[in-house]
Specification:
With 245 residues, the chain is of the alpha/beta class. It has helices spanning 10-27, 43-51, 80-92, 94-99, 113-122, 143-150, 154-166, 171-192, 210-230, 234-242, and strands at residues 2-7, 32-37, 60-65, 103-109, 125-128. Helices cover 53% and strands 12% of the residues. Strands 2-3-4-1-5 form a five-stranded parallel sheet, sandwiched between helices. The chain is globular, with a radius of gyration of 18 Å.
């Protein structure tokens, strides 16, 4: 079954989706939880999401984090086909995901209206959070955390990671927010560099080139995968990551 979180208010969509996941895990402690970023979506991963279960785990809770790419410029060729393919793959598996006993949370901020209509029709529940005319800052979105990453300040980032963990934020939520910001930096840098990821002389932000922010995104994916495989506490892995940028 599909639970859709979408809308133009990116901060609120992400905050509400992760709050829902946290509440579901608290309500059903034996629910196995997996977060999949756009780059991790494959036919096999989506088949597993729809069909997996087992003797000791009756149901899975799977968060598909931002599976659809944002709009691209005409010159932005590198990575566009791959990322568009991820969204297309998800659409191909919608029927199976909707029919699954597993809880499939699709976190898709700024989702195009046509795609939103298609997903809403398949979802058991859908939640939309759009920016009001006079927008208030969404509580729960950690602007200081993402700003520290954007500024490439390892000391500030380490401090904000620890502040968030002490405040009770789930490490999976922090990782998702950092990975979202890495992709945001990459998209802005590519636009500033004319779509070329190899240009290192111009910068899409004050601190990150397109090539560097792409590597940042990949490093964050690897961090999560390594944490899962090795059993390393994700909170500690995030602290180490903060000090490595």
């Amino acid at each position: 079954m599909i639970y859709l979180f979408c809308g133009s208010d990116v901060d609120k969509v992400r905050t509400k989706a992760f709050a829902w996941v946290a509440a579901a895990r608290a309500k059903e402690p034996n629910l196995a939880y997996v977060r999949l970023a756009r780059e991790e979506l494959t036919d096999a991963a989506l088949d597993d999401a729809a069909l997996s279960g087992g003797l000791f785990v009756s149901r899975l809770l799977i968060l598909l984090d931002d599976p659809f790419p944002t709009a691209r410029t005409a010159g932005d060729e590198e990575g566009g086909e791959e990322e568009s393919g991820a969204g297309s793959l998800l659409e191909d598996h919608l029927d199976a995901l909707a029919a699954s006993d597993n809880a499939i949370v699709i976190l898709a901020p700024k989702l195009a209206a046509v795609k939103a209509k298609k997903l809403v029709a398949k979802a058991k529940f859908s939640y939309a959070f759009d920016k009001p005319a006079a927008r208030e800052v969404a509580r729960g979105f950690n602007g200081d955390l993402v700003n520290a990453l954007a500024a490439r300040s390892r000391d500030r980032l380490w401090l904000e990671v620890n502040r968030a963990l002490i405040a009770g934020d789930a490490p999976e939520m922090l990782h998702g927010l950092l990975h979202w910001k890495a992709r945001d930096l990459m998209e802005k840098a590519k636009a500033a560099e004319g779509g070329s990821p190899d240009v290192s002389t111009s910068r899409g932000s004050r601190a990150w080139t397109a090539a560097e922010s792409r590597r940042l995104s990949l490093d964050l994916i690897k961090l999560l995968q390594d944490s899962r495989r090795s059993g390393l506490d994700l909170s500690l892995a995030l602290e180490k990551f903060a000090l490595s940028i």
